[in-house]
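Thread: Modeling a multi-component assembly for a lab meeting

Hi all, long-time lurker, first post. My supervisor asked me to bring a structural picture of a complex we are working on to next week's group meeting, and I have zero experience with this. I have the sequence lines for every component (921 residues in total). Could someone generate the structure of the whole assembly? Inputs are pasted exactly as I received them:
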Amino acid sequence: MLRKAYLFAAFFALALLSAVPANSQSAKMIEAGKKEGKAVVYGSLESDSAETIFNAFKKKTGIEVEYWRASATKVMDRALGEYRAGKPLFDIILTNDNPMQIMFKEGIFAKYDSPTAKDFPKDAIDPNLGPRYRNVIVGVVYNKDIIKPADAPKSLEDLLKPQFRGKIVMPDPTQHTTTTQWVASLWKLMGKEKADKYIRDLAATKPILVESLLPAAERVTTGETPIAITYIKYVYIFGKKGAPLDYVRLGKFMGDGHYLALDNKAPHPNAGKALIDFFLDDESMNMMAKLGEFVNRKGIYPPLPDADKIQFVEMVDLGTKEFKEKKDEYTKIFLK
Amino acid sequence: MSITEKAIEVGAALHATGSRSQIGLFLSQPISWVFLVVGGIIAFLSLYPTFFLFYGSLTDAPLGVPGHFTLKNYIRAFTDPAAYPLLLNSFIFGLGSSGLSVIFALTLAWITIRTNAPFRRLFELTAIIPNILPPILVSISWVTLLNPSNGLINASLVKIFGLEQGPFNIYSITGLIFVESLILTPLAFLIIAAALKGMDPSLEESAKTLGSNEFSVARRITFPLMRPAILAAATLNFVRAVESFDTPAIIALPARIEVFTTKIWREALGSFPTNHNLAAAYGVGILAIALVFVYLYRRFTSQVESFSTVTGKGFRPHQIDLGPWKYAASAFAFLLLVLLVVLPILVLTLVAILPYYHVPTWQTWHNLTLENFRYVWANARVHRAFANSLFLALGGATVCMLLASFASYITVRTKLAGRGILEGLVFIPWAFPGTALALGLLWAYVDFPIPIYATIWIILIAYVTRFLPYGMRAVSSTIIQIHKELEEASIACGAGFLVTFRRVLIPMMRPGVMAGWIILVTIFMREFSATLFLYSPGAEPLGPLMYFLYLDGMRGRVAAIGLVISLISVILIAFAQRYSRWESK
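Re: Modeling a multi-component assembly
Sure thing. I ran the full set together rather than chain by chain. Output:
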């Protein structure tokens, strides 16, 4: 018993010793960050999530965060624009995989291994960008007041059934980038041959096309259209305000990974690093999960029924040429 | 000799020879200096960002990266046979919505300015409100009202008359034109109302003396005299409709109607990554179309004398006594205002007090909330955005109208060589799609020697650059109406150009100047497409704030902010309209 206690004490002391440098490094970084005054973030993270985390960061460190929120494409346009002109105003970029990879290839990011990154699963760590802090998952959402759960579709294939014809809304895959990617990645769920046929059959049901994933979800909350292909997090986000939404348990769900990275010409590098450390830590990941996000730290789930049973499949990255080819192909299929 | 005649002489002389003495004569005239200063500012504002877009359209690399000269962007943009049916759709959409907006505006302006219809002042005050609301919210309001599945109006009609399905379908070309025309009506109303306020009644009175009744006077005298203002409004609205993306995205897309901007979005602006070069090539194409319209407009209004309706003789536009018809006129104006203001504002109010966006049921009434208004009231970020936007709206509109007044005077009144170019310069940045121009502005100013990028001043410059044509159209249509004898009288009394401009022309132009100022204030309070790329992350104005709240699905907050902006703008408009009336002089 005593031996066990000694062993535990030795282990604890070792853990403490190894933690001290990280903590003191972190404290130094925060002090330096305070002298820099603020951290500037360009990102596509929803403003409520961003505001919650940045306020907590300010409370903990005293460092202010200025956030410029836009769509992923606009984030990339502005960041690359400033960077190429040699006047980047941002310290951190916070957006999804495809634009992050393009910006990485343009060489705008600094390598920073945050000590808090180690608690992410290995398969959620990108060699270039570090931890994939959240997955944004696309699925099938429906209005429970209009379609009883027993009558709801049970799979993607069910969407082709005659009873759902004219009752499905989705973003236009010829215009909305994430949806282009989602349709182009369906082979990952059903194999190439079946996916090609499925895409044609889905287009033949003449789904109602809208500009992006949010208007698709909103048409379901209003009851204008009962079923949508959209982000399943809306089931929780609108559901907590009273919207009668549920999602189809597909088992495997496709979505996009999101990352954050430090600018290699960051005007406030220490404040930026301190923010990355805080952002990837348990505290902020828990906050984000409570707001409905699927974060990748082990054991943290959003308050959505069966969230822990979801198997995430990352959508394929498409290059500029592939996007154009896919959009042209879907124009012929969906808009004929 | 009037300053106009002097200017003609100076311009002609300078044109004929370039001798030093004639340059001296040119420079000895105050109007020449005004031309050089105003022309210089406008040329810089317009050409500097546009240069980057033109350059981008002729290169194969993203802006800021050295590339090779190429015409492939133009070839790709304009040799696709699929583009031409879309251009036709855009033309029908632009013509329909611009035409309908002018009809709405003309009717409303005539009733409110020229008749004795009851409540006309109230109608005048509220007609501008839709211009305050972001167009996307107006489109969404109409979808909530007229969608075929559960639109509130359709559902009510089905219930009341026991119909099988709702009679209206917003997802159609008619629905598209209808909603866009409602969005465009306030702009046309302001321009036409300003011109109506400044009209000399003597021609109308002569026609009445010769036996014409009120309606035939309106048809044969009043409306022809209004032609410059009507054409100005129609030109602006046509181009605005053709380049608009919001309404087509919300209404045309589910209806599977494609317009040209849908193609631009798919292939350039909405492509991933954004194809700046192709976007710039499309922008240049739209610019060419817009310049054709500017040319046509100038041809229509070239016989300036025939439109001079404000003379030196004391007058006040007379009010037409409609007799018992005045109630019918009020009812008609009220109906238009229900469409323009009451219904969209009701839907917005509903959205602002709903816990989430949905069509209300009986259950809804138990769940209404003021949470969104509490957010507007208590959030420091919202307060900062209001302060920034108020500064930009008041400052930007004032600077813009000052520049527009001088520029309009030069283009309408003088014969200076290069005045046509000045008008063309003003229109160049306006003809580019908003996002494309924003990229041009980003590139123009990110590396500017004076460090104004990401400050509030760069946004002010962007607003003046993009929206100067609105100010110019509003003032030009008023200047055309002012007879030269007023300036001549001032000159004869010994006043110089600047004194005449300040003491005679500015007061006479006041309805147009104030109309333009109001248009600009209401646009600047909510502008986002140019602002988004230029504002400093810590100092966002209302437009970007509303944009990302909308992106995040917080329509309630957007609606609450929209309603507060409307209230503030109505107060500003009431003040401006009071100041612009002839009676208040």
